[in-house]
Amino acid sequence: MTDRNATTQWTGPLQSGSGNVTLDSSGTAQLPVTWASRVEGPDGRTSPEELIAAAHSSCYSMQLAGLLGAAGTPPESIGTSAEVSFGPKGDGFAITGIALTVRAKVPGATAEDFDAAARRAKEICPVSVALAGTAITLDAALD
């Protein structure tokens, strides 16, 4: 089992406060975060939704690479973007959906085999599984 850690230090009230997210396990980044970066725009700061998008796109790419390799058609390249939608819902705010878009170069893979692997990767990617209950769409195609 592998554990990963991140820590956020927040100062001030929600609307005018700010924080820093530190990727503790790797020590590779300290990222500023504000409420405004969630609801108005990034303005040089990140948001939990952007971090989820990063986690989902990287996890999905690795899962798809593993499935394609196991099928005897290892990818030359995979580009995955994840768009996480966040907005008002009910009495508060929520992640309202995630759109995965993937384009890949996979020598020897048919469009049908690639599509099946892409759909399966969406189902079993650990981040997709962790986000069960959130609508996740997939647009996958070979380059």
From TrEMBL:
Pfam families, per database record: OsmC (PF02566)
TM regions (residue ranges): none
Superkingdom of origin organism: Bacteria
InterPro entries linked to this entry: KH_dom-like_a/b (IPR015946), OsmC/Ohr_fam (IPR003718), OsmC/Ohrsf (IPR036102), OsmC_Ohr_Peroxiredoxin (IPR052707), Peroxiredoxin_OsmC (IPR019904)
Disordered: annotated span: 1-27
PANTHER family, per database record: OSMOTICALLY INDUCIBLE FAMILY PROTEIN
Protein name per UniProt: OsmC family peroxiredoxin
Lineage: Bacteria, Bacillati, Actinomycetota, Actinomycetes, Pseudonocardiales
